[in-house]
Design goal:
Asparagine synthase, Rossmann-like_a/b/a_fold
Length: 514
Amino acid sequence: MFEADVHLHDLGAPPAIVGGALVFGGSHVRPLAHRMVQWYALAGPVRLLVIARERFSDDDAVSGTCRAANEREIDTVLADLDNYLLDYAAFILDRDETAIRYRTSPIVSIPAYIHTNSGLVMVDWDYTRLLRKMTVRPSIDIVLAQIAGRSPYGSRTIVENLYRTVADSVTTVKLSGVAFCYPPPIEHEGPRVVAPNVDLESVLLETIGDLIAARRLSPAQVAVEVSGGMDSALTAMAAASALDGRLLSIGAQFSGAMGRAQAERRSLLVDRGGFDDLSVPAERYPPFFPGTARRTGLNVLPDDENYPELFEVMFAALRSAGIDTLVSGFGGDELYAIYEDEEDGDGVPRQPFPSPFLSPEGRRRAQAVQSDYPASWLQPSCWQSAAARSQRLLRFGLWPVYPFINVSLARFVAALPYPHRRDRNLLRKTLTGVLGSSVFETDYQKEAFGSVARRGIEENKAYLLDLVRCSPLIEGHGIDGAVLLRSLEVPAISLDKPTFEGLFRSLKVLAFFA
């Protein structure tokens, strides 16, 4: 939630609010300027604290203030953050320790990226601005892991000396280096017995609605994502119930049999929710096309939004319609934990398909990359999904709302008996009750970008072949360029799914470092 350039030798300078930023010496901390964010600063004898937080529905507090405080008051404010149920971030500047600490919430819908250089600490929610200020070197082990289909959750990124803040953590920067403090691991307690006569479907719908209504939303400025999938379906219907006013819905529309089924589900949702709908044809915006975001190096991190070519068009349309908040179903897949003694959970980790695009040494190095983030109520992939999209949303002035990314909700679902969690039955039955149709229980084919991605590769083959031939990553780093070229030379439609997905991951990495 911050953009900042802080020289550690400036920590003792007196602070002042100038142009929406906290300025001290030659340094500044600029909180994100958005209607949904309230921020303030406390200046103590030892620490300078800047807090930015997502507003509750009744939060009319003035934003952009700075006042004196004692250290005990700063401790109290930091302790109170443990009970803050929406997103927040705290920027703590410690004069005695000559240190900067960045604390995140368990939601962390807006991660920050951090780079250090000889006493200068640069922080930004938009990594592209940081990358333009630094010397970019690939972190080869992370590169290889991403090509192999492994993206362990943690603070390291694909770029050396570029760190990302993660959920419920504190990142500390000193002259001696960068350190990370993660929360303690949790232990799942397993399923519990549901009390008689409890309507779990109503509980889930009302909880999602309450999580949406808790925020300071203005229906005229809110859009809901309606992809035709289950997770966005529930958040959209919960938003329609919780907010007074006709909402705008938006979604990418696919072609073929999958697209026809998707269009029918979207039509049902738009009708039941009373939405003003905007549908964008996905086939018109395949990846790697000229003039799109991915054609510019250092512009789309490989673990960023898979299809910025499409979603930037959607986000621009929302901005032009006066929308400043998007409600999405990100994190829904991750709610339905399966325990080892249940039929879907055999306790054997799912291994990625062995990437044919890595040498044996490259595969060994990729497998050696492990996450150091502890076990948590929320699954890391939900935070990764949020991180992948949020910065792109914010570039278009859109605040992301992810109701499923909530620790209390995750604990509730994890405690349900297996029949409710299996195959997301609770979600399916909830949608049946809301929509008056069992389409999500009986006839649901999930939408997928595979055909659009294959077309993007096929129609931009000359560019992609040149990208591989000229990439500085090919020689001596464990990536097999010859296999990549051979895979590009055959029709994309002929590649089996694991090989195609590995090719797409590889091309995303090479395009970023082009």
